[in-house]
Amino acid sequence: MSKKSTYTFIVALSITVLITSNIASTKLFSLFGNNSIIIDGGTILFPVAYIIGDIVTEIYGFKKAKQLIFIGFLMSLLTSLTFFVVQILPSADMWENQSAYESIIGLLPRITTGSLIAYLAGEISNSYTMARLKVITNGRRLWQRTIGSTIIGAFVDTILFSTIAFYGTLSNSSLLQLIVTVYLIKVSVEILVTPITYIVVNKLRVIEGTDHFDRSLNIRNVLTN
What we know:
By secondary structure, this protein is mainly alpha-helical. The protein has nine helices and two strands.
């Protein structure tokens, strides 16, 4: 796979993960078939967004990561606006699924707002932390950077999204449980897939020709390249 096609695939995967997670987040479900542990549907896939963010920051730099984050933000906004326009268009007489459409993919202001704000803040925090840690560790110990950045980014994302989307619709105890559970899932997924992240990063280093880390780089270089 060429450099151009590799990065194109990463961008496409990142956007797909984001939009799919946003739609899936409209459903809350019980993790073990009862109401003791509740999570939103987006949690199934969204942790992958942080893994992609780590890989892009590591291989392509913080500047590219920011570009990808803003592209994801704009595409998610476009998706939400499209769903809203379709929602308000008059239904055909023979179509009886308006209420179903509105409840599943219609514009839900709080979830949409929460998702957009949380994604932007969480991903920027994740990539910025990843870039700083790359300097602090002199490019070594990738696992510290991937896990450490996810601990920060997922914390920001989970609190913002859960609070904006569900505060007042859930009891305080249920909301707190949702935040803690989703956060732990995101961090756990990052830890579990760390061996796979190493494989992907090493493969991309070969494809992109970035096998070495310049020890002379400072935080300014890493955050602007």
